[in-house]
Amino acid sequence: MGRPQVHIRLSEQQKARWQGYVDDSPEYDTLTELIRRSVERTIAVEGDSDDATPRVQGDNQPSSERLDILDERTSRILTRLDSIEDTVSDAANAMYESQTAGRFVNLELYEYIPTDRDNSATIEDIFRKQRDELGMTKEKVEDSLGVLAQMVDTVSSHREGGSICYYKED
Questions:
Q1: How far is the C-alpha of 110 from the C-alpha of 126, rounded, in Å?
Q2: Which of 29, 43, 113, 129 could form a disulfide with 48 if both were Cys (CB 3.0 to 4.6 A apart)?
C-alpha cells in the first residue's frame, strides 16, 4: 500500500504562485516538497515541541545548537583556508626567488616606470629619474627592469630606435 495522501483545494492563481516560487527556488524541487517542508516548519515554530525552537526536518537539535556547530565548522574551514593561503604565498615566493636567483630586483623601481606605451622610457631615462631617491646603479636598474617585465603582467617593453623602452599598463 502507498503512502497516505492529503488533498487540498486552492485557486488556480494560488497554485500558480506556489509553483512559480518552486520554479525560482533552489531549495525546492516540487510543489509537494514546498508544502511538506512549510507545514513541518510551521509545526516546529508554533509548538509541537517543548521549547518552540525551530528545528530542521529530520534533526532533533534546536537551531541554536545547529548554529553553534556551523560556527565551529566555519572557524575550522577558515583556519584551513589561512593555512592554504600561507602555503600558496610561500610557494609563490619560492618560485619568484628561484626565477630571480642571482638577479637584483628593487620593486620600488616600479613607481618610476611611466604609464602607457606612448610615455615609455629607456633604461637611461628611468635610471636618471630614480638616481636621487633609490640610488641604484644603471646595471641594477637594467636588471630590475628586465625581471619586472618578465614577472609583472603590467610591465612591458618594446624597441624604439635601437633602445629598449619600458612602460606599465594600469
A1: 10
A2: 43
110 within 8 A of 156, measured Cβ to Cβ = no
Q: Is the pLDDT score of 55 beyond 60?
A: no
DSSP label at residue 134: H
For residue 6, give the 3-state DSSP assignment: coil
Burial class of residue 109, CB neighbours in 10 A (0-12, 13-18, 19+):
buried
Residue partners of 124: CB distance under 8 A and separation at least 6: 138, 163
**pLDDT tens digit sequence for 22-35:** 999 888 889 888 89
User: Among the CATH numbers 3.40.50.620, 1.20.120.1730, 1.10.10.60, 1.10.10.10, which is that of 107-168?
Assistant: 1.10.10.10
